[in-house]
Amino acid sequence: MPDTQLESRKRRDQLLKQIQQYARKAVFGTPSETYRTCGTPTCRCHGPGPKHGPHLYINFRGKHGKTTGYYVPKAAHKPIREGVTAWQSLQDCLRELAEINKQNVLDRARQARP
């Protein structure tokens, strides 16, 4: 087996391990923070003072293309942000894996040609 095939196989195995790790934490969506006013008319948030927040939301497109999202409680901010980062890393790994797979298929097709 040529070195490039061996290297490709090793990299593919590494990617599969990383994908498994990222998949355990992955959270799909884009984080956004908002600042809001409350229902108390005399609160500082209704005047020139700062608004309440930041409040974390995760937005994403649902199955039918409609944008939706959900509020993330403060206690879940860190794991949700880590999950979003894991999702982005997972996508990067999958793209690289797909490129390796494509190259392997093309290489086999070239070798099989008479």
Question: Can you give me a brief rundown of this structure?
Answer:
With 114 residues, the protein is α+β, with helices and mostly antiparallel strands. 52% of the residues lie in helices and 20% in strands.
Describe the structure.
The chain is an alpha+beta fold and 114 residues long. It has one domain (3-112). 52% of the residues lie in helices and 20% in strands. It contains two helices and three strands, in the order H-E-E-E-H. The chain has helices at residues 3-25, 77-112; strands spanning 30-36, 52-61, 67-72. It has a three-stranded antiparallel beta sheet with strand order 1-2-3, with helices on one face. Helix 1 packs antiparallel against helix 2 (77-112). It starts with a helix and ends with a helix. The model has no long low-confidence stretch (mean pLDDT 93).
Structure characteristics:
alpha+beta
Topology:
Layout: H1 3-25, E1 30-36, E2 52-61, E3 67-72, H2 77-112
Antiparallel strand pairs: 1-2, 2-3
Helix pairs in contact: 1-2
Average predicted confidence as pLDDT: 93
User: What distance separates the N and C termini?
Assistant: 20 Å
Please bin the fraction of helical residues.
40-55%
Taken as a percent bin, the fraction of beta residues is: 15-25%
Q: What would you call the shape?
A: elongated
Whole-number tally of structural domains: 1
Total number of helical segments? 2
Largest sheet: 3 strands, antiparallel
Structural class: alpha+beta
- C-alpha Rg (nearest Å): 23 Å
- Strand segment tally: 3
> What is the chain-wise order of helices and strands?
HEEEH
With strands numbered from the N-terminus, the spatial order across the biggest sheet is: 1-2-3
Contiguous low-pLDDT stretches (5 residues minimum) are none
